[in-house]
Every structure is written in structure tokens, then in C-alpha cells.
Specification:
By secondary structure, this protein is an alpha+beta fold. It has four domains: about 130 residues, no CATH class; about 110 residues, Alpha-Beta Plaits; about 80 residues; about 70 residues, no CATH class. The chain has 19 helices and eleven strands. The strands form four sheets. The protein has a four-stranded antiparallel β-sheet, with helices on one face. Strands 7-8-9 form a three-stranded antiparallel β-sheet. A two-stranded antiparallel sheet has the order 1-2. The chain is globular, with a radius of gyration of 24 Å. It starts with a helix and ends in a 7-residue tail after the last helix.
Length: about 500
């Protein structure tokens, strides 16, 4: 048994991941270009090849078992992880059934929403998630060729910062934002009410893949609405939602991030007419506007979007800061760690660092100059708590606070927005690798430039959404000398430390 297990691990670790990525990307690029020129027959044939591709199947399994954030979440079968042997078994199942996949039932997890209501998160099994990831590999390039330029949510190569910059361009002084209003659009239970027919009618896919997606939709169906809903928690669900909502941006100048949308109104624009058109668009897809949450707001009064509070000052300048709700959430997280008596000061600082760094990175294109947004009070509170511990003097407390609250520079509205309808599947590797490198700062950015925007381990350019990790070559995480740092893919980093990893 031990020898067989070892053999499975050798088989998995011995995969030529660089070549597998290349094989998949080559097919995806061809799908994208086929749809661009209108050759849907060729695109569907290529999508079939992706479904049957061993490279795509292995990468899909790796994505859901090693890279995705929810990789440890169990489905209805109770499995939270797959060992090497089980991964190869899933691979064999996919090899036989990729074109005729049957979904298991979904595990329902109640999630409490901000308004006190409960939302059901529906989690597929790991095997089903792997197939959905494979389906996403085939579907995404086809639809990326058709998606609207002003759609930014859950799309490869696009981010919330692109949506933020689009709002800035529409509401800054040049855009005469001071005279505009915005519609803060809220779609009522978007994921739960999307019509299955609206998804299936718009799906660019061969019949076998359409059947698999239909079964996926039916696996998480609400008995009260049997023809509606895409399960939240599925790998492919955000893509299906984007497919259904694509085109809503054409109704009026706007920006959309998944189901969050802001519509820009000039002084003479009739808000009621715009809303009626949107209602009609959504009704055709089984959805409706939430009347109580949809608001028409003056830009000078400000509005919240994607965790930011945006407003136009009386001098015409656009101003963006973290929203009150977003700030409340980060304070809650910090307090939970700082006030936890089970942790020592060192552990607290270590746990705080990624949370604070992530929050500051998300808001790095905002005005973070205020004491509230600089987290000065939270830093001060943590410092006092640290000093209460024995053997922690004020100098050590200051040092721990610097570690727990790492500095991240901010530049207001300086994000470089993605060009038009460009997609990573268009094959412009130079543009995408350089653009992705711009999303990082400090040591990571410098290392990427030194490596010509390529992974130091596999040599491939950084063109997908996989995170860039900094690897310390000598293993000393306190050694930040330039010649000791190597920028690598998240997955490559795992394999560098393969001997220590339990994956």
C-alpha cells in the first residue's frame, strides 16, 4: 500500500506542469480566436478537445485540490482533500466521463448575510468541482471573446481595480462628474433567480458540455424555482452568471462587476426609462431589481461600490476611500486577533500581517491618508496590548506592530486599466505578463522585472489569475536581498517546497 501510494505521489509530482499549461493555453487561444471570427463550429470542436485533453483534466484537478481558496471545503461526500492516489482516480473518471458527466447532489451551508437573512451556499463534491473547472477551461475563452468591455467581475485578467478606475474616468473633473447622478443597481437574489434557459440559450459549447452544465444547474435547483438559479459555491457559477448578464452594459453607460452595477446618468438622462429597460432585460432572464436597495444618488452625496465609498467633491475632484462597512469589517478581524488571549504577541503579529497587507493592497488606489484608513488607532491598540505581555518592551512592541501592520503605499486613481476588450486568451503574452506584474509592488514588482515577467521556476509568463509568490532561495524568510528572491507561480512555489508539503 505504501509503495502504491508513493508511486501515485511520484506520478503526480512528476507531471511536466509547464508543458501541461502550454498545451491547455494553446487550445484556449484557438477557441478564443475561432469565436472572434465567428467560426462557432470550430470553437465547439476545440472545446471538445479541451474536455478530452489530459493536460486540461490534470490542471483542473490541481486547481480545485491545491490552488483554490475553498479547496478544503467538503461536498456531500464529506471529502475535504484528495491524496495523490485519489487525484489520479478522479483523472481516470474524467478521462472516461468528461463528455457525459453526472453531478452528485450539493451540500448546503447556510451563510448569514449582512442584513440578517440566510443565504445557502451549495458546495459540489471535489470531483464535481474538478469537472466544473474543466468545463470553465473550455467555456471561458469562448465567452471572453464576446463579453462586454465594461464587465470586470470574475473574469481572467480583470479586477475590481479596473471597475474602480472606470468609475473614476466617468466621474472625474474631465468627465464632468459633479453634474452626474448614479443608479446603484441591486439585482434581487441574482444567482438564485437566473433562468436556466437564458444561460443555456447563450452558451457557446458542444452538446455534451451543454448537457453537463444543465445537469450542474439542476443539481443545485431550488424546488420552489426549478427552472432558475445557479449554485453559489460552484466553480463555474460566476461564469454562467456573467453569460446571462452580458449585454446589460449596452443599455446605458455603466460599469458592472458580476451582479454589482453602477449606471452613470447625465443631467438630462431619464432614470425611469433606463430602469425600465434594465427591468425588461432582467425579466427576460428570470431576474428583477431590488426596489428597496436600488438607489439614484447624486455623485456629490457619494455611494458605495465594491467596498469603496466614492463621491465627487464640490471642487469637481473624484474622491475614493474604503467604505464604512468595509472598514468595520477589517476592524472586526483585527480586534478578533488582538484581543485573543490564546495568542502571544509574536503570533498575533504574524496573523495580522496578511490580513492588513491584503486590505491595504485592495485599497491602494484610494485616499488612505486619514487616521481611520491608516489604521492608526488599531495599530496603537495592538501596541498597548503587546506591551502588557511579559518580556515585550516598547521597542519590541513597535517592531511587532511594524510586522503586523505592514506598510503598503497608496496612489490615488493610478491603476492602469485593462485595454478595451483585451483578454489573456488573445495571445498577447507581453502585454498580459507586464500588466499582471504591475498589480504587484515593492519587492515582488522588482523581482518580476528582473525575471522579465516570467516565473523563475517554470519559465512561463504570468498571464493567468494564479497568484505570484516570492520564494526565498536560501529558505530564510528574513533575508530580503534581491539575489535571494525569486518570483514564482503559487503552484510552482508548492512544488519547490514539495518535500515539506502535505499536498
Amino acid at each position: 500500500m505504501g509503495r502504491h501510494r508513493q508511486k501515485s505521489s511520484d506520478l503526480w509530482k512528476g507531471q511536466n506542469w509547464k508543458q501541461l499549461r502550454k498545451n491547455l493555453f494553446r487550445l484556449q487561444k484557438r477557441v478564443y480566436k475561432a469565436v472572434q471570427v465567428g467560426d462557432l463550429r470550430k470553437a465547439r470542436s476545440l472545446q471538445k478537445l479541451i474536455l478530452k485533453s489530459r493536460s486540461a483534466q490534470i490542471l483542473a484537478i490541481r486547481q480545485v485540490t491545491q490552488l483554490n481558496q475553498g479547496k478544503k471545503t467538503a461536498g456531500i461526500d464529506g471529502k475535504t482533500a484528495l491524496n495523490y492516489k485519489e487525484r489520479l482516480e478522479v483523472l481516470e473518471t474524467m478521462r472516461q466521463s468528461a463528455l457525459d458527466w453526472h453531478h452528485s447532489s450539493l451540500r448546503e451551508i447556510p451563510i448569514l448575510k449582512k442584513n440578517g437573512k440566510v443565504r445557502m451556499l451549495k458546495i459540489p463534491t471535489i470531483s464535481d468541482r474538478a469537472w466544473q473547472c474543466l468545463a470553465k477551461f473550455a467555456l471561458e475563452p469562448a465567452h471572453e471573446a464576446t463579453f462586454h468591455a465594461r464587465s470586470y467581475g470574475f473574469r481572467t485578467g480583470r479586477s475590481a481595480h479596473d471597475a474602480q478606475k472606470h468609475v473614476f474616468q466617468n466621474l472625474n473633473a474631465h468627465g464632468n462628474g459633479i453634474k452626474k447622478r448614479v443608479i446603484e443597481l441591486d439585482i434581487k437574489k441574482c444567482f438564485d433567480r437566473i433562468s436556466h434557459k437564458s444561460i443555456m440559450d447563450r452558451l457557446i459549447a458542444p452538446a455534451s458540455l451543454k448537457t453537463g452544465i444543465f445537469r450542474c444547474l439542476k443539481a443545485g435547483v431550488d424546488l420552489e424555482f426549478p427552472e432558475q438559479g445557479t449554485p453559489q459555491g460552484g466553480v463555474v457559477s460566476p461564469l454562467l452568471a456573467n453569460i446571462a448578464l452580458d449585454g446589460i452594459e449596452d443599455i446605458h453607460p455603466s460599469v458592472r462587476y458580476a451582479d454589482d452595477m453602477v449606471i452613470f446618468l447625465k443631467p438630462k438622462d431619464n432614470a425611469e426609462k433606463v430602469l425600465n429597460k434594465i427591468k425588461k432585460f432582467l425579466a427576460e432572464r428570470g431576474m428583477e431589481i431590488s426596489e428597496e436597495k436600488t438607489k439614484i444618488t447624486k455623485t456629490t452625496d457619494g455611494f458605495d461600490f465594491l467596498g469603496w465609498h466614492m463621491r465627487v467633491k464640490l471642487n469637481g475632484k473624484f474622491h475614493c476611500t474604503p467604505s464604512v462597512e468595509n472598514h468595520r469589517a477589517i476592524r472586526k478581524k483585527i480586534k478578533a486577533i488582538v484581543n485573543n488571549s490564546n495568542y502571544g504577541a509574536e503570533v498575533k503579529a504574524k496573523k495580522l500581517a496578511p490580513i492588513v497587507r491584503g486590505w491595504r493592497n485592495y485599497h491602494k488606489y484610494c485616499d488612505m491618508s486619514s487616521s481611520r484608513d491608516s489604521l492608526w488607532f488599531m495599530n496603537n491598540t495592538a501596541n498597548r496590548k503587546f506591551r502588557r505581555e511579559k518580556k515585550v518592551n516598547r521597542y519590541q512592541a513597535d517592531k511587532l506592530c511594524k510586522k503586523g501592520f505592514p506598510a503598503v503605499g497608496y496612489e490615488q486613481n493610478k491603476h492602469v486599466m485593462v485595454k478595451g476588450t483585451k483578454s489573456p486568451y488573445d495571445g498577447d503574452l507581453v502585454y498580459w505578463s507586464q500588466r499582471n506584474s504591475q498589480l504587484y509592488s515593492d519587492a515582488t514588482s522588482e523581482t518580476l522585472k528582473k525575471q522579465n515577467h516570467s516565473c523563475g521556476y517554470c519559465g512561463l509568463r504570468f498571464i493567468d489569475e494564479e497568484r505570484v509568490h516570492l520564494h526565498h532561495i536560501d529558505g530564510n524568510h528574513n533575508n530580503w536581498k534581491k539575489n535571494n528572491l525569486m518570483a514564482v507561480h503559487q503552484s510552482c512555489h508548492q512544488y519547490i517546497h514539495g518535500g515539506k508539503s502535505k499536498d
